[in-house]
Amino acid sequence: MVATCLHLAGFVCSFMGWIGVVVATATNDWVVTCGYTITTCRKMDELGSKGLWADCVMATGLYHCKPLVDILILPGYVQACRALMIAASVLGLPAIFLLITVLPCIRMGHEPGAAKYRRSQLGGILIILLAMCGVVATIWFPVCAHRETTIMSFGYSLYTGWIGSALCLFGGCVIVCCSGDAQTFGENRFYYASGSSSPTHAKSAHV
C-alpha cells in the first residue's frame, strides 16, 4: 500500500512538473532586462524580457515582441536551451503515457506485475531525463543572458521551469526508487473471502 501511494504521488508530481516545463518552453518571460532601475526603464521604455523564442519590450500599455527567427545568428546558448526544453517537453509524452498504464486502477488483461514494473521504471527514468534537461536549460539561459545584458530579475517563465523541473526530478526519483520491486509491483489487491468467514470480510492476497 505504501509503495502504491508513493507511486501515485510520484506520478502526480511528474505530471504537474511536465506541465510546468511545457509552459516555460512556450512562454518568453524568462529574464527581465534593464540597465537602470525598473521605474527608470519603464519611463524610458527600455524594460525588456528575453526568452527562447522572442525578445520583448515592456512599457506602459505596450508589450511588443520580436520573434527570434534567424537561427543562424542566434547565440549558441539560446539554441541549446531551445533544444533542451523541446526535448524535455517531448520526453514527457511517452513518460506520462507509460506511467498512466501502470497506475493501480488500470489493468491490461492478466499482465504480470513484472511487466508493469519495467514500464514504471522506464517512465521514471524518462521523467528524470526530462528534469535534467529542464534544470540545465533554466540555469544555463540566465547565466549566459547576464553576460550579454544586465538582468534585473527573473521572469515567471524561468520560475515555472525551475519548479516544473524540480517536481519532475522528485517524482521520477520516487517512481524509480520507492515503487516496490518486480515481484510485488501491482500484485497487491483485495478479494472477498467465502466460506469460513463473513462474505463481506475482505482479505489481501498476493497473486
From TrEMBL:
Transmembrane segments annotated in the record for this chain: 83-102, 122-141, 161-180
Location in the cell: Cell junction, Tight junction; Cell membrane
Q: Which UniProt keywords apply?
A: Cell junction, Cell membrane, Membrane, Phosphoprotein, Signal, Tight junction, Transmembrane, Transmembrane helix
Q: Where this protein primarily resides, as one coarse class?
A: other
Give the signal sequence positions. Answer: 1-24
Q: One MF term in GO for this entry?
A: structural molecule activity
| Membrane topology classification | Multi-pass membrane protein
InterPro entries on file: Claudin, Claudin11, Claudin_CS, PMP22/EMP/MP20/Claudin
**What GO cellular component entries does it have?**
bicellular tight junction; plasma membrane
A Pfam family reported for this protein in Swiss-Prot or TrEMBL:
PMP22_Claudin
On the tree of life, the source organism's domain of life is Eukaryota
Q: Does the keyword S-adenosyl-L-methionine apply?
A: no
Q: State how it assembles.
A: Interacts with tetraspanin-3/TSPAN3. Interacts with OCLN.
Family, per entry: Belongs to the claudin family.
What does this chain do? Claudins function as major constituents of the tight junction complexes that regulate the permeability of epithelia. Plays a major role in tight junction-specific obliteration of the intercellular space, through calcium-independent cell-adhesion activity.
Q: What is this protein called?
A: Claudin
Gene assigned in the entry: Cldn11
